[in-house]
Amino acid sequence: MRKSKLSTQILWVGLITILLTILATMILPLVRERSLRREKVLADMTRIWGQPHLISGPVAYGAGGAVEIRKFKIDGDVKTSVRRKGIYRFPFYAAKLDFSGRLGAQAGRIVLLSRSRLQIDSATLDERVVFFSEHNENGMYVYRAKVAGALDDELKISLTCEGLQSLSFAPTSATAEVRLKSDWNDPGFFGDYLPAEYTVSKGGFTAFWKLHLPRHKAPEEKYLHLPPAAEPEADTSDSVAQRRAEIAIAAATQPTPGRYGVNFYQPVDIYLATERSVKYAILFIALTFLTLVLFETISSAEIHPMQYLLAGSALVIFYLLLLALAEYTGFTISYCAAAAANVLLLARYSGSFLLSRRHTLAFAAVLALLYALLYVILQLEEFALIAGASTLFLALATTMYLTRKLDWYGSVAGERSSP
Questions:
Q1: Which of 231, 323, 338, 405 lies 20 to 30 A from 65 at CA?
Q2: For residue 236, what are the CA distances in angstroms to 37, 60, 231, 241, 242?
């Protein structure tokens, strides 16, 4: 009788686990829908506050074509803040950049490219003031200046740029040194060249790139372009089509310099984190039900399948509550609030069928521990898989240890009924 009841209960628990997992995965489309809405708001804000900056240059040109800029350096100080629109928040930066280098030959003009508008505060060539004109060509901002540069003249440009999310550069000289410092403490370095050195602390980060591209040479001015990041709006006029075709040919026949930079982003995006937590739903529900089955097996408690279903429904609703609160309070606060509410609810509800205050408190403690472990896994990012696998292994080992003397065929632990 005991064997039949236990087998039936395990079967019911398995079916309910599968059903609740399916219901939990149905939350994923809602998460993606809210994420797409956030991206739409971000697109609207970029039109107001500026797109992520991608800067190429400066490049000097003389009678014989591109002129190498030696000892090229960029020093940048980036201040950040968080901008809001409705319930959404995005990292905004204001960067003060200083460019310097020396001409490798005589030059008559200097060109600087950017995907978004720049504010050039000052520019000098051998202590002579340089004035840049601004043009918008094929979806990028082009800054040109006529100069009378001689060999080894020192070029200095100070500019300010503001934008959202990221700041990046495209190399235009064979060697370059780039130093950035910022008060943002969660940088994401990306691109074809990673920093040679960097430090990250609660007060911000510093990063140093040292590029050495001996075969790289800046293209002719008419072929000068930015690495692809986002396509400009469609323009089908013959002149623009011809210009893009020429650039495509030049890009195919010359080494691609790529780009490098830093992302200013939150390491745990609320939608990504919620989606990842939903993917652990089957593990979370299974471990919770396993705890209840163990309490039911080693005690006199009897748990009806409907009670399993109601308790499991609370586990599924946790993800909806998490998503709804995270859009207003951030992920950490919403996770703590939703987890605390669920632990209190299930602890109160389990007291009606576990019939033991000690078992009820133990179940609440296990549930709180599971939520804490899930939060740690979500924070680990790269190490999430090994943390999840280790949690599952420890849960199995604990179950095997607690049930090592349990007689699964009889009604009393430690002894099997004699024939």
A1: 231
A2: 30, 31, 13, 6, 10
